[in-house]
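ok, trying the design again with the full structure, not the truncated one.
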């Protein structure tokens, strides 16, 4: 605990962290990058999830997945560094903030859910690629994914108020 708190205090005193807190433009610019990134991330994941749930059944799931999920992964190049920079502005307070902690847990659960989806129901996608209902496990994963990402967005937005 002591070591962790020391690292966070040191981080808060770095020139970058100070600039994030005190510069008029830096924080909002980084926040815009964060938002643009997660709009692509959550947008593409949710559109894929809706296809798995049965919307636009004539579109092949595997091809749609190759297109959308590639963009979801690419968006992390914006979302994660921007998130870490936003964190660096107030590391001590945020590390202690229950909503921020919950947000990180939900991000981890959303990642695990995506991994489980690929390792389990997605392996048989050839059998339900077009014009078939996805198996119940795939549909369950899609609903869970939408709920988890909604939770991440809610926690992110709530951070401004708690
Ligand atoms: C992975 C998907 C992520 C999503 C969907 C997400 C979502 C959000 C949302 C909706 C906001 C509020 C934006 C606003 O109020 O204008 C936000 C802000 C923020 N996010 Fe993320 N975020 C993600 C990842 C991360 C990561 C990995 C970190 C850091 C480790 C992080 C740290 C922050 C911080 C510190 C804020 C600023 C809160 C504030 O200024 O009030 N985020 N995020």
């Amino acid at each position: 605990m002591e070591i962790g708190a020391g690292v966070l205090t040191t981080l808060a005193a770095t020139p970058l962290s100070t600039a994030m807190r005190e510069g008029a433009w830096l924080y909002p610019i980084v926040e815009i990058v964060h938002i643009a990134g997660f709009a692509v991330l959550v947008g593409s994941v949710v559109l894929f999830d809706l296809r798995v749930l049965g919307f636009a059944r004539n579109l092949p799931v595997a091809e749609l997945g190759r297109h959308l999920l590639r963009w979801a992964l690419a968006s992390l190049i914006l979302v994660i560094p921007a998130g870490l920079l936003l964190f660096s502005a107030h590391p001590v307070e945020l590390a202690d903030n229950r909503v921020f902690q919950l947000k990180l847990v939900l991000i981890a659960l959303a990642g695990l859910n995506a991994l489980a989806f690929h390792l389990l129901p997605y392996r048989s996608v050839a059998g339900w690629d077009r014009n078939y209902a996805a198996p119940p496990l795939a549909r369950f994963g899609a609903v869970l994914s939408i709920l988890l990402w909604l939770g991440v967005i809610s926690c992110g937005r709530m951070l401004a108020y708690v």
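Keeping the full-length input from now on. The chain is about 75% helix and 0% strand.
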